[in-house]
């Protein structure tokens, strides 16, 4: 059951993607998430690095399609800006947006990859269809994630000192 949440590949960012390996796997189309995968959340502009990455993908023969849960205006504007088709309000992990993207790229689940930063939308949705799923670190949530992790550890230390051998009584209120 948990297998549907597991990506086939985990990368720090899209820039670590090895296009040759994808080709060797028979991948011809790449569905890409937008927010926190290509650019930060609601950021309008693509960096030179991103434009170069998209151009490289195309020159290696890949068809691309952005599939985002964000609103039409946001996705359409970005899509036009970078010259890659986009599907908005996809409601990932629902399958509809993925199918629309594959129809646009003229690919099948067996030769399509999906790249995104969220397990419960990008990876779950992709795995449900049998796509090659690639998880990347979210571009702007790193600090937030770390903060949350630290909070959890703090919480354990404060409320369950006996478990980790810390002496003294819990004094701080619960932080959630
Ligand atoms: Mg995202």
Describe, in short, the structure shown.
The protein has 176 residues and is α/β, with parallel strands linked by helices.
What does the secondary structure layout of this molecule look like, with pairings?
Layout: E1 9-11, H1 19-24, E2 29-32, H2 48-59, E3 63-67, H3 72-82, E4 86-87, H4 96-105, E5 112-116, H5 119-129, E6 132-136, H6 142-159
Parallel strand pairs: 1-6, 2-3, 2-5, 3-4, 5-6
Magnesium ion binds at residues 33, 35-37, 116-118.
Give keywords.
single chain, 176 residues, alpha/beta, Rossmann fold, 2 domains, six-stranded parallel sheet, 6 helices, 39% helix, 14% strand, binds magnesium ion
Question: Your description of this structure?
Answer:
The chain is an alpha/beta fold and 176 residues long. It folds into two domains: 7-140, Rossmann fold (3-Layer(aba) Sandwich), CATH 3.40.50; 141-176, no CATH class. The protein contains six helices and six strands; from the N terminus they run βαβαβαβαβαβα. The chain has helices spanning 19-24, 48-59, 72-82, 96-105, 119-129, 142-159; strands at residues 9-11, 29-32, 63-67, 86-87, 112-116, 132-136. A six-stranded parallel sheet has the order 1-6-5-2-3-4, sandwiched between helices. The protein is globular, with a radius of gyration of 19 Å. The chain starts with 8 loop residues before the first strand and ends in a 17-residue tail after the last helix. The relative contact order is 0.18. The protein binds magnesium ion (MG). Magnesium ion is lined by residues 33, 35-37, 116-118. Magnesium ion binds next to loops.
């Amino acid at each position: 059951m948990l297998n549907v949440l597991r990506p086939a590949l985990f990368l720090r960012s899209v820039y670590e993607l090895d296009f040759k390996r994808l080709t060797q796997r028979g991948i011809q189309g790449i569905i890409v998430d937008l927010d926190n995968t290509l650019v930060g959340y609601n950021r309008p502009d693509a960096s030179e690095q991103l434009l170069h990455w998209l151009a490289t993908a195309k020159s290696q023969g890949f068809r691309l399609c952005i599939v985002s849960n964000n609103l039409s205006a946001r996705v359409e504007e970005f899509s036009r800006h970078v010259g890659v088709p986009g599907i908005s309000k996809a409601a990932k992990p629902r399958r509809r947006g993925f199918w629309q993207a594959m129809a646009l790229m003229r690919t099948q689940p067996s030769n399509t990859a999906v790249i995104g930063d969220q397990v419960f939308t990008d990876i779950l949705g992709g795995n449900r269809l049998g796509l090659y799923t690639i998880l990347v670190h979210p571009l702007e949530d790193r600090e937030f994630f770390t903060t949350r992790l630290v909070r959890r550890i703090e919480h354990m230390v404060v409320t369950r000192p006996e478990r980790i051998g810390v002496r003294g009584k819990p004094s701080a209120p619960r932080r959630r």
